[in-house]
Amino acid sequence: MIKRYFVRTRELQEGMRIDQSIVDRMDRTLIAKYTILDQYMIDSLKKLRINGVYISEGEEEATETDYDKLPAVVKSNLAKYREPDPAKVQLTDTVKKRVSSAMQYLYNNTESEIFMDTTHTITGELLKAIDNNAALAVDISVLKTSDEYTFKHSVDVATVSMIIAKKQGLSKEDIHNIGIAGLLHDIGKSKIPLEILNKPGRLDDQEFAVMKRHSEFGYEILKNKEGISPPIALAVLQHHEKMNGKGYPFGYAADKIIPYAKILSVADVYDALVTERPYKKPFTQRNAIELIMSMTEELDLPSMRSFLDSVILYPVDSTVQLSTGEDARVVKNNANSVLRPTVVGLETGKVYDLTNDFDCANIIIQ
After folding, report:
1. Given this model, what pLDDT does residue 141 score?
2. Structural domains in the chain (count)
3. What residues contact 10, with CB distance under 8 A and at least 6 apart?
4. How far is CA 31 from CA 142, 298, 365, in A?
5. Collapsing DSSP states into helix, strand and coil, what is residue 7?
6. Which of 4-13, 71-80, 124-133 has the highest mean pLDDT?
7. How many CB atoms lie within 10 A of CB 317?
């Protein structure tokens, strides 16, 4: 049974599980809900002068789906049909802390002499994490619940964008540049008035008009920096443009939007959807994916396809519930079908190929 209670920050201890999200002045997730706290996070909460947070403890009661209790036919089919996921991006806790500190420095010191050195260091860390295990995919549930908490959105956008670029076969230089653009795509928000950034509710039309200028402010910050190539600065400027010409700041259509910006836009839209804000609840990952799939007039189709081919919504070995009411375990993710993996029913041992088996056409994952 899970118990939830309030704890003053000075009484927090390592290993406690936070039961709320903590956001920064830019409305970004600092500590994701359900993160296990370490001393670094506790110290940061104290520095932020947060008096207390909600903590939860305990676990859901054990179910009959524990592996040892599964029928023999289920165990057999789990072993027979299981195909591991492609290698996924993994960031160690040490790397996450280094990236966290560096990102905070960048957003607070846009005129620093070591701005570009710091940017290249962070991007290098992310690229190394991708290259170390030949990562071709990203587990989006891990991204969303990551304990990487300072400027998490920018790190997530950079990571997803780099994976998309790799999926498209772009050069190492392009992947690195897209990572820089992802990290800095919202740098212009450092120039937005605090009363707008910190507003707890939705922005009115006038406030939103100011907020929309962050892409222009970001471009102004970056355009003359040594080490920032024109495509990087332009990607920051254009990351809110849409293929149908209904984006901002200029309402450019597809033919005027540079390739880097087309990739950034997909990653940015997804991460914004699943990020909790004071004025909105986050989309579920599934609902966010479905919405992305519906945005064929707004998002670049090749970038969208590369994103959908790179993300893992239901990792192999995760347990899901089917619309039939049966619990099932994922044994294989199918190409070009992120929402419909192959699963094995945990009661019957039946194999459901949700992508290719016509008999499964009416079955979905709840």
Report:
1. 66
2. 3
3. 46
4. 13, 31, 29
5. strand
6. 71-80
7. 12
Supply φ then ψ for residue 292, to 5 degrees.
Answer: -55, -45
CA 11 to chain CA mean position, Å = 31
Say what the pTM is: 0.77
Residue 114 sits in a domain whose CATH number is 1.10.3210.10
Give the whole-angstrom CA distance, residue 33 versus residue 40: 16
Asked if residue 366 is part of any domain, the answer here is no
Note whether 260 and 356 are same-domain residues.
Answer: no
Look up the domain containing 157 and give its range: 93-312
- By C-alpha distance, which of 242, 219, 244, 243 is closest to 232? 219
- Clarify whether residues 46 and 134 are in a common domain: no
Of 71, 136, 30, nearest to 329 by C-alpha is 71
**Angle at alpha carbon of residue 153, lines to 148 and 159, rounded to 5°:** 80
pLDDT in tens, 288-308: 999 999 999 999 999 999 999
